[in-house]
Amino acid sequence: MKEDIIFNLKQVHDRIKNACKLSDRDVSDVQLLLATKTVPAERIRIAIEAGENLIGENKMQEFRDKDSELKDLKIERHFIGHLQTNKVKDVLKYVSCIQSLDRLSLAEELHKQLQKENRNLDVFIQVNTSFEESKFGLAPSDVIPFIKEIGKYHTLKIKGLMTIGLLDVEKEKMRPSLRLLREISDEVYNAKIEGITHLKLSMGMSQDLELAIAEGSNMVRIGTSIFGNRFLEKEIWNENIAE
Fold first, then answer.
1. How far apart are CA 230 and CA 243, in angstroms?
2. β-strands 200-202, 97-101: how paired?
3. What is the rounded CA–CA span in Å between residue 165 and residue 201?
4. Buried-state track 41-66, b at ≥16 Cβ within 10 A, e below 16
5. Tell me, what's the pLDDT at 230?
6. Is residue 158 part of a domain?
7. CA 79 to chain centroid
8. What is the mean pLDDT of residues 95-115?
9. CATH number of the domain to which 184 belongs
10. Which terminus of the chain has a smaller tally of CB atoms within 10 A, N or C?
11. pLDDT score at 239
C-alpha cells in the first residue's frame, strides 16, 4: 500500500510538471491538493509523510473522524464540498479555507461565526462552469455581483475561484468549462473590485489535470490517481463532489 501511494504521487507530480512544461508555466505555480474523501487516515498519513501537506474533504464528519489519527501531522485542510450553514461552526474547527462558497446565506453564517472567533478565513467562490443542474456553484454571470455583495463580510478573504469541470466526456469537450473559469477570473480582475487583486483557480482532477493546467489552474484536486478507487461503504457519493 505505501509503495503504491508513493509511486502514484510521483506519477501525479510528473503529470503536473509535464503539463506545466507544455504550457510554459512554472511548476511552482500549481499546488497539489489531496482529495481525501472516504480515504482512510492511514493512507492519508503515507502521503503526508511523503511530503504533501494539503488535503481537502467534502464532509465535516470526515475531518472529525480522521482528526485523532492525523493530529500529530502538519496538515493544511480545505473544505471542498457543499457546505450546509448548520455545519459552519464545526467545519471551522478544522479548516483554513473553504473552496465552495456559493451563496449569500453561507457567507453571512461564516462571517457571523468568524466574528465570534475573532479571525478571518480564506475562501474560494465555487462557479458552475459546466452548467449542469446536478452541480452546485454560482452561475458565471453572478460571480462579479456576488463578490461585490460579500465585500461587506470583512472576515472572508477571497483568494480564488473553484469549479468542477465537465467530466466523463472526450477531453476536448472538458476544456470549455475550465477555460470559462479563467475568463471569469479575468473579468473579475478587470472589474477592479476593491480588495481583489489576484485570484487563484482551483480546477482539475484526475481526469482533466493537464487540461486544467493548460487553462490556468493554480491548484489541482487529485484523489483517485493517488489513492485508487474510493473506499465506499454505505454511501453513494454524488459526482458533484468527485475529485
1. 10
2. unpaired
3. 12
4. bebbbbbbeeebebbbbbbbebbeeb
5. 65
6. yes
7. 7
8. 99
9. 3.20.20.10
10. N
11. 37
CA-nearest of 97, 96, 150, 161 to 126 is 161
- pLDDT for the residue 229: 80
Give start and end residues of each alpha helix (H) in 103-195. 104-117, 143-149, 171-190
Please state the separation of Cα 179 from the chain's center in Å: 17
Residue with cell 504521487: 9
Within 10 angstroms of residue 241's Cβ, the number of other Cβ atoms is 18
> What's the one-letter identity of residue 109?
E
Residue with cell 452548467: 131
- Closest by CA to 141, choosing from 99, 183, 109, 173, is 183
Question: pLDDT tens digits, residue range 30-47?
Answer: 999 999 999 999 999 999
- pLDDT higher than threshold 50 for residue 240: no
- Domain tally for the chain? 1
Q: What b/e string do you get for 168-178 counting C-beta neighbours within 10 Å, with b at 16 or more?
A: eeeeeebbebb
Is residue 239 situated within a structural domain? no
